[in-house]
Design goal:
The complex is a heterodimer of chains A (276) and B (170). Chain A is of the alpha+beta class. Helices cover 32% and strands 23% of the residues of chain A. Chain A is built from eleven helices and 14 strands. The longest helix of chain A has 18 residues. The mean pLDDT of chain A is 96. With 170 residues, chain B is α+β, with helices and mostly antiparallel strands. Helix content of chain B is 35%, strand content 14%. In chain B, helix 2 crosses helix 5. Chain B is globular and about 45 Å long. The chains are: A alpha+beta (276), B alpha+beta (170). Chains A and B meet through strand 1, helix 2 and helix 6 of A and strand 4 and helix 3 of B.
Chain lengths: 276, 170
């Protein structure tokens, strides 16, 4: 499978990339690791006229503490998330989830920013950032803004990023205690049929809960979070995991099975995280 | 567009279409047919090569993305007529049946041993999750990787005692 022809420019700096995005808008796509975009292009489901390759922008590859939270460059690869001692101690759910993405070859290429900007409901890291109540830093020639992860995923493979914006950084709070990331796949390296990310930021009393592949976008299990805030037990709260959701049906699982799986995985995640 | 990269230690400079996948540069332009195309959807791992020392699926990397980088394929592992320790171990442990997945398996194993020189058996199995063997010959493949790990660790020990985790003879 060969992608349709396109022009290719390697961005030499973030500013260079922003100028290209401002000039070409919807006609171009940003290429990072390429492990979501290139398969779509090979299937000709995506046919951008121009690829702006940001893959060499080392300035967007970092993990460090800033103002009591973690600042993670958008081009930080899964492999780095997986092996970062800072994340392992401060946001272990992110290390764990990154370790479970795809396979080693994919993790050598794929990036956190790429996963978020791609906005696939079946992606693991979007659910982690959502459960943590993270923020996404988007930059364009018009300036920089912070978008809450809640509300960022607007539709099937759609996000709140404007065509001229580049996702440059992800901010998440420290969340070292009471977390769980679980997903069910039938085969090694498969996408999750359903997954759950559960994490409690250091400043919160109850955890954030987000679901992988349980709707057309990554979603928060808001009814579970509300039940926990109201003092429900893990088993009671988990019963609300699919409230208000219409999980997709496909050859892997029916909608009903996904709803069932969401309830089971949320209960197990709550138990694993120490919520009784 | 013009690209210049290093493939198996040799310089390659050529004009390519931006959409040329790395695996097609290797197989069709350079004639390095050891790297196979299996699924062509970044699932099976038959096209695994090393890009700057790390395993990647070359069906899902543009040649343009490898510009300026160092690529190693299965043809680049053996030195001076002697097999690479991972190749030798696949031979000795019969880590193959039909052989189609073997180049990708070997390259994935070389990458693993660079990152984790003494993996446990579960770690080997997990690290090879991106490589499918349709003959299901996994047991001997895992044995081969463990054997290669033991061989390279033994070979490394006398010369580099105290710093054996850094760098790699593989």
């Amino acid at each position: 499978m060969i992608p349709a022809a396109f022009d290719y420019v390697r961005a030499e700096s973030v500013d260079h990339a922003l100028h290209l995005l401002a000039e070409h808008g919807d006609a171009c796509k940003v290429l990072a690791g390429g492990h979501s975009l290139l398969p779509l292009m090979k299937l000709r489901l995506a046919t951008p006229a121009l690829l702006v390759d940001v893959g060499r922008l080392g300035e967007l590859d970092y993990v460090h503490h800033v103002d009591g939270e973690l600042a993670i460059g958008a081009l930080t690869r899964y492999r780095t998330l997986e092996t970062s001692p800072v994340l392992a101690s401060s946001v272990p759910i992110m290390s764990r989830a990154a370790h479970l993405v795809g396979d080693p070859q994919v993790r050598h290429r794929g990036t956190l920013g790429g996963a978020l900007a791609h906005g696939d409901a079946a992606g693991d890291l979007p659910a982690v950032v959502l459960a943590l109540g993270g923020q996404l830093v988007a930059r364009s020639l018009r300036g920089e803004r912070r978008l809450a992860a809640t509300g960022f995923f607007t539709g099937f493979l759609e996000t709140a990023l404007a065509p001229d914006e580049l996702l440059v950084e992800v901010r998440v709070p420290e969340a070292s205690g009471g977390w769980s990331f679980r997903k069910l796949s039938r085969r090694a390296q498969d996408w999750a049929i359903v997954g759950v990310a559960l994490a409690r930021p250091a400043s919160a009393d109850t955890p954030g809960v987000a679901l992988v592949n349980a709707a057309s976008t990554t979603v928060r299990a808001g009814a579970v979070e509300a039940a926990l805030r109201a003092g429900a037990s893990a088993a009671e709260a988990a019963e609300h995991a699919a409230d208000g959701l219409d999980p997709p049906s496909d050859l892997h699982a029916s909608s009903e099975y996904r709803a069932h799986l969401a309830r089971v995985l949320v209960r197990r995640a709550l138990e694993e995280a120490g919520w009784s | 567009m013009r690209v210049a990269l290093t493939v198996n230690g040799g310089s390659v400079a050529t004009e390519v279409e931006p959409r040329l996948l790395l695996v097609h540069l290797l197989r069709d332009t350079l004639g390095l047919k050891g790297t196979n195309v299996g699924c062509d959807t970044s699932s099976c791992g038959a096209c695994t090569v090393l890009l700057d020392g790390e395993s990647v699926k070359s069906c899902t990397v543009l040649t343009a993305q490898a510009d300026g980088c160092e690529v190693t394929t299965i043809e680049g592992l053996a030195e001076e007529g002697s097999l690479h320790p991972v190749q030798q171990a696949f031979w000795e442990e019969h880590g193959l049946q039909c052989g189609f997945c073997t180049p990708g398996m070997v390259m994935a194993a070389v990458s693993l041993l660079r990152e984790n020189p003494r993996p446990t058996e579960p770690e080997v199995r997990e690290a090879l999750e991106g490589n499918l063997c349709r003959c299901t010959g996994y047991h001997n493949i895992v044995r081969a990787v463990l054997s290669a790990a033991a061989t390279t660790a033994t070979a490394r020990q006398p010369a580099t005692a105290g710093s054996s985790m850094r760098g790699s003879t593989t």
